[in-house]
Amino acid sequence: MKTLKTQVAIIGAGPSGLLLGQLLHNAGIATVIVERQTPAYVQERIRAGVLEQGMVDLLRQAGVGQRMDTEGLVHAGFQVALGERQVHIDLHALTGGKTVMIYGQTEVTRDLMAARQVAGALTLYEASNVVPHGMKSAEPFVTFEKDGETWRLDCDYIAGCDGFHGVARQSIPADTLKVFERVYPFGWLGILADTPPVHDELVYARHARGFALCSMRSTTRTRYYLQVPSNEKVEDWSDQRFWEELKLRLPSALADTLVSGPSIEKSIAPLRSFVVEPMQYGRMFLVGDAAHIVPPTGAKGLNLAASDVSTLFNILLKVYRDGRTELLEKYSEICLRRVWKAERFSWWMTSMLHTFDDNDAFSQRISESELEYFVDSEAGRKTIAENYVGLPYEAIE
After folding, report:
1. Domain membership of residue 24 as a residue range
2. Pick the catalytic residue: 295, 296, 320, 331?
3. In a domain? residue 228
4. Are the C-beta atoms of residues 56 and 68 closer than 8 Å to each other?
5. Which backbone phi and psi does 21 adopt, to 5 degrees?
6. 140-189: per-residue pLDDT in tens?
């Protein structure tokens, strides 16, 4: 058996694992990342593209914000479409100057992978049978197989950054965890296309035929979504069918200017809300999707992972520099306060903007009137804006 030793073992080389690794490395804290996929697979996953102010600041703090600041699109607002109406949510004015950044998760991951390579920090890709051990002891370790050999990675702490289906959460005894979950009766059919965006801001459209979102990755690459039943199949949706349906759900002023084109990628993402409590087990800490999932309507998934990373990094910093080990037990409590607020916002946006087949006529009208109230009220728009740009990170005292 080959052996390695580090201070923090990170399971998962997605953006949360890489970001945590970069912050710790810059602070002089040693890390090893273990990832079951290949670098190419990790880098090419198509995911979120709206970054909260807090995550933007955290990427800059990690020293990986240069390309984001050059190529990313700063958005000071977004549009809500209700039938033929369009309402502007002025994020900048409603939040005292805060904005969001349009910069794809694929690009964030690429920047973080490049920075880790330059730093010379170790990432072990294509590792199979990854198992954390001794999480409740003072000497945890991770075992895995790579290149036909068994490895043991000794460490002080383990960060489970390996996603919803990862091994970290599954390694915690089920009777110590409480699971909260809601599965929605629809998914998002999304396409990526090299076409100019239909609007210079994101457009969230509520329509009787179902929700639609007009997003983007750049001024030349778009990401569009349609609400579809959960049993829909991607192969039943030709590009032509997608574009025609999207036009039906947008205000005619936008539909008339929509530029269609061949899709680069097309997929259906199921929607669910999921939280597990607590987010730690001894010396192992769950980060991001390993602990919580939000429907993408509120643009919170990747951003919640970033706030978990910030919390864990700042706690570990105080542990290693000041011996503040009592802070370790506060990780879950601190994270969950922000997680549940983001879960509420994502559920709320999902409930107001989507059509639910099982809603009676009364519930449908209530949902429509609630959305109209919030977008037509300055206080309502401020509530949306404050949550959309991201609630503040909690200080670690």
Report:
1. 2-75+99-180+272-354
2. 296
3. no
4. yes
5. -60, -40
6. 999 999 999 999 999 999 999 999 999 999 999 999 999 999 999 999 99
